[in-house]
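hiii so um. not sure if this is the right channel but i have a protein structure encoded as C-alpha cells and i wanna go backwards to a sequence. like what aa goes where. can anyone help
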C-alpha cells in the first residue's frame, strides 16, 4: 500500500515517490512548512502504514472532483484518491465488489466511477448506486473499501492509513569506520514482494531528501539506487555516511496504473 512529505519525482515517467521516515511512518519530501512532521532516525515497532502526500505535487487533485489512481505493486489494484471538497479527500480500494475488477477513477462529467467489466457505478465516495429503498441498482451489491484519510490545509498534506502496509523499521545499526565521521549504517525493514525501494538522505529538516546509493551486502560497494523486492519479508541495506548528522528515509516508488 506509507510521515511526511510526498514529492513528484521523475515527472517525465510520471512516477511518484512516497517516502516513510525511518522511525516513523510515511514521509513526504520536506519543506519548511512540514518540518514538524519529521523526526530523527529511530527504531519503531510494526503498525499500520501511513502514506502522506503533498497536495501541491498532485495537480490532478487541485480542484474538487479531481481523481487519481496510484499503484506501488504491480499485482495489487491501485488506490483511488478523490477530492470531495476543498478540505476533504477519500481514498478507496478500487477493487469492484462484484467480480474483483478494477474500478476506473472518478469522472467529473459523468459524476461517477464505473467498473469496466460489468458496469457497476459508484459515487465519488465509493458508494454503489442505490434506489430509494437503499438496494443496489448495480451488479455490485456493496460499496468500495475505504482507507482512513485526513487532510491538513496548513501543510497541504493528505495522510492515508493502510492497515496492511508495513512501514516500520526492524533495526538500525551504525558501524564507525576509522576516525572522523565515516560510518556504515545497516537498515532492516519489511519489504513487500514486487515493490521498488529507494533510500533517501537529507542533512537537515528543510533540505529536500536526495537519493543515495546503498548495498545489499555488509562489505559491498554502495552503488545501487533502487531495488525491486523479489521476496516478502525483511530487507537489509547498507549505506555509507561521512556526515555527523543525517536524516534517512526509505522510498516506495509509485506509478499510475
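sure thing!! here u go:
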Amino acid at each position: 500500500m506509507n510521515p511526511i512529505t510526498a514529492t513528484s519525482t521523475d515527472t517525465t515517467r510520471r512516477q511518484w515517490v512516497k517516502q516513510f521516515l525511518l522511525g516513523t511512518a510515511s514521509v513526504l519530501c520536506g519543506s519548511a512548512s512540514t518540518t514538524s512532521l519529521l523526526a530523527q532516525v529511530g527504531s519503531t515497532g510494526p503498525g499500520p502504514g501511513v502514506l502522506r502526500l503533498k497536495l501541491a505535487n498532485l495537480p490532478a487533485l487541485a480542484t474538487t472532483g479531481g481523481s487519481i489512481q496510484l499503484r506501488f505493486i504491480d499485482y495489487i489494484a491501485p488506490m483511488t484518491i478523490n477530492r470531495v471538497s476543498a478540505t476533504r479527500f477519500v481514498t478507496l480500494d478500487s477493487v469492484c465488489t462484484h467480480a474483483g475488477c478494477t474500478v476506473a477513477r472518478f469522472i467529473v462529467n459523468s459524476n461517477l466511477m464505473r467498473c469496466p467489466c460489468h458496469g457497476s457505478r459508484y459515487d465519488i465516495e465509493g458508494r454503489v448506486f442505490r434506489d430509494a429503498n437503499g438496494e443496489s441498482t448495480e451488479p455490485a451489491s456493496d460499496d468500495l473499501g475505504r482507507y482512513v484519510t485526513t487532510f491538513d490545509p496548513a501543510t497541504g498534506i493528505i495522510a492515508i492509513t493502510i492497515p496492511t502496509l508495513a512501514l516500520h523499521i526492524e533495526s538500525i545499526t551504525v558501524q564507525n569506520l576509522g576516525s572522523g565521521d565515516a560510518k556504515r549504517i545497516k537498515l532492516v525493514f519489511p519489504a513487500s514482494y514486487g515493490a521498488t525501494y529507494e533510500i533517501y538522505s537529507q542533512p537537515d529538516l528543510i533540505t529536500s531528501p536526495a537519493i543515495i546509493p546503498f548495498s545489499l551486502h555488509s562489505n559491498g560497494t554502495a552503488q545501487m539506487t533502487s531495488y525491486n523486492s523479489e521476496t516478502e519479508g525483511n530487507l537489509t541495506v547498507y549505506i555509507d555516511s561521512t556526515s555527523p548528522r543525517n536524516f534517512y528515509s526509505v522510498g516506495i516508488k509509485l506509478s499510475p496504473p
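oh and The first strand starts at residue 7 and ends at 9.
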